[in-house]
Amino acid sequence: FLTGNGRFVFSFAFRSAEYRRLVRLTTPSLLGAIIYQVTILLPGMLGSYFGTGYISMMTYANQMISIFQVLLITNLMSMVYPNLSRSFSHSVEVGRVKFVQYLKLFFMIVMPVVALMIVIGHEVIAILFERGNFDSTSSHQVFYFSPISATGATA
């Protein structure tokens, strides 16, 4: 903000109700981002102690989870969010009802996909990544690293 002598001075009202509301609204997103970054950083740090190739395997597992996250979850959210937003702006109660409906829909779509990935995940990884020095043993290890990456996707 411009003062009388032509200098800019920034001031923040940390105790205002608007600021506190903003912090409350952004905290879940911030925590999700922190958890995601930790799930990327921690396996990389731990993988460096295991030996050659483990960081690559964790990277491949993270790519598998990211494919699932981008193709399914993000697209579903981009379709649902505007409707949910309108519902909450109309009435909180209507928004809650819609939220529960959409949550059930997400579980009905995501759970079979997760079950399918558990059943045929190893084969999918083999099709996508097996070539050269990346053999069946490597794809099996990537399959076992996938749940570690999945914890970050839920954030």
Automatic annotation (TrEMBL):
Question: Per the UniProt record, which residue ranges are transmembrane?
Answer: 30-51, 63-84, 105-129
Q: What is a single molecular function from GO for this protein?
A: lipid-linked peptidoglycan transporter activity
CC terms in the record's Gene Ontology section: plasma membrane
Name where it's found.
Answer: Cell membrane
Task: Indicate where this protein is primarily found.
Answer: membrane
Which Pfam family is one of those matched by this entry? Answer: MurJ
Q: Which UniProt keywords apply?
A: Cell membrane, Cell shape, Membrane, Peptidoglycan synthesis, Transmembrane, Transmembrane helix
* Record-level GO BP terms: lipid translocation; peptidoglycan biosynthetic process; regulation of cell shape
Record's bilayer topology term: Multi-pass membrane protein
Per its record, how is this protein called by name?
Teichoic acid/polysaccharide export protein
Q: Which organism is it from?
A: Listeria fleischmannii FSL S10-1203
Q: What is the lineage of its organism?
A: Bacteria, Bacillati, Bacillota, Bacilli, Bacillales
